[in-house]
Amino acid sequence: MFKRYFLLLLLCASGLFAQAQYLFIPMDADTQSDHLKAYGISYWVLSKGTKVKWLLNYRGGSFLVPNVQEIKNELIVRGVSYEEMSEAEVSSILELVASPSQNMQEVLLEKAPKIAVYTPSGKLPWDDAVTMVLTYAEIPYTKVYDEEVLSDELLLYDWLHLHHEDFTGQYGKFYRNYRAAPWYIEEKKKAEELAQKLGYNKVSEEKRDVALKIRDYVVGGGFMFAMCSATDSFDIALGAEGVDIAEPMFDGDASEAGYQNKIDYSKTFAFTDYKLERSPMVYEFSSIDMTTKRDIKRELDYFSLMDFSAKWDPIPTMLNQNHTSLVKGFMGQTTSFYRPEVKKNVLVLGENRANKEAKYIHGIRGKGFFTFYGGHDPEDYQHRVGDPPTELSLHPNSPGYRLILNNVLFPAARKKKQKT
Keywords of this protein's UniProt record, alphabetized (predicted)? Predict the structure, then answer.
């Protein structure tokens, strides 16, 4: 009788231990129903004080979280695919990931980063891909603008996104086509009023100091992510510190004579040896951008994600996690970057090599990091002024938007120094 009872207890115990201990969130192309919301789940788990394992290059960069009913409920509500796994199944996966023969790595995500988005209140005439995907993925963020930046409030945040912006004080170079448009006139007026409120005579001078504050934020250990014109205009503002490059219709006086030769490329983050576009009638800042130099048919417009060693270079591997290595191209005021003008110490994460253009780049500045992503909206090939924003529920598996969310989670990771 006792022996039979003991065997019954053993069977019950073994059944308990066989129960699923983990929730596995696949990120491959075949099994994940909503890649974008999966990032939101990972952020939400981190915000609850629970750590997340990010399995780089395993089934598209999958996530592993504890099997807790609250998390399971959230996965179901948000429509994110998951699998329940036992301790033995997870041990087998982690053993494979750790194998020296596999280009995979386990990265521990520890704390939900505090996110700020640099954006004006009206932000006309553009919507913004980053705020759209953060909202869709249900990742909280705080809006900041010039007043907050100049008063050092960036120190409160781990991650900063720069909305479609012009840090050179030339109002986006929209002068030729939109100088009589009501939205342009109103935005110019608001910018001038804000600059005066903050004690500046010119918008260009105020934007320069904002760029310098953002530079200091990165150098001090922050992570800065920028898209479209916020990329090259930011770098141009740094390189033109103390030099007037704005024409009279932008700041009321003539630009400085010979300003091209006064640009200090040592001050910039990513670009060098570029030539500024002087004419206010040209919708372009400099030779950095590839928009007018491209000869690619829309159906053939793709960029390739570079392959890195997950064990030796986990940082670029994290930033490139995806369920495909070939991503649809998309345009913007700054569509992509002329490869020869990207600094040698900046890592190209995604490129169209045949066209000599870098689409997605990353670098280190001081103690911090920056990522520049060319183009305006990964699911809207040629977004025009006045076009409606993208409905992300129609693109839940967007590879282009996944790259943005890789950057959002990046500050949560326990990092190792990269070798590249």
Answer: Signal
Residue 24 has pLDDT above 80, yes or no: yes
CB 50, CB 420: distance < 8 Å: no
Q: Which of 321, 346, 314, 317 is nearest to 416 (CA)?
A: 314
pTM: 0.92
Report residue 288's pLDDT band, with 50, 70 and 90 as the boundaries.
very high
Q: How far apart are CA 35 and CA 321, in angstroms?
A: 11
Instruction: Look up residue 133 and give its two tokens.
Output: 């995907």
**How many angstroms separate the CA atoms of 72 and 74, rounded?**
5
* Predicted confidence (pLDDT) per residue in 341-374, tens digit: 999 999 999 999 989 999 999 999 999 999 999 9
CA neighbor of 148 nearest in space, from 123, 124, 115, 118: 118
Domains with residue ranges and CATH for the chain: 2-109 (3.30.70), 115-412 (3.40.50.880)
Tell me the three-class secondary structure of the chain, residue by residue. CHHHHHHHHHHHHHHHHHCCCEEEECCCCCCCCCHHHHHHHHHHHHHCCCCEEEEECCCCCEEEEECCHHHHHHHHHHCCCCEEECHHHHHHHHHHHHCCCCCCEEEEECCCCCEEEECCCCCCCCCCHHHHHHHHHCCCCEEECHHHHHCCHHHHCCEEEECCCCCCCCHHHCHHHHCCCHHHHHHHHHHHHHHHHCCCCCHHHHHHHHHHHHHHHHHCCCEEEEECHHHHHHHHHHHCCCCCCCCHHHHCCCCCCCHHHHCCHHHCCCECCCCECCCCCCCCCECCECHHHCCCCHHHCEEEECCCCCCCCHHHHHHCCCCCCEEECCCCCCCCEEHHHECCCCEEEEEEHHHCEEEEEEEEECCEEEEEECCCCCCCCCCCCCCCCCCHHHCCCCHHHHHHHHHHHHHHECCCCCCC
Q: What is the pLDDT of residue 351?
A: 97
Environment class of 4 (CB within 10 Å of its CB; exposed 0-12, middle 13-18, buried 19+): exposed
Question: Which of 97, 110, 100 is closest to 56 using CA atoms?
Answer: 97
Nearest residue to 273 via CA among 221, 326, 337, 191: 337
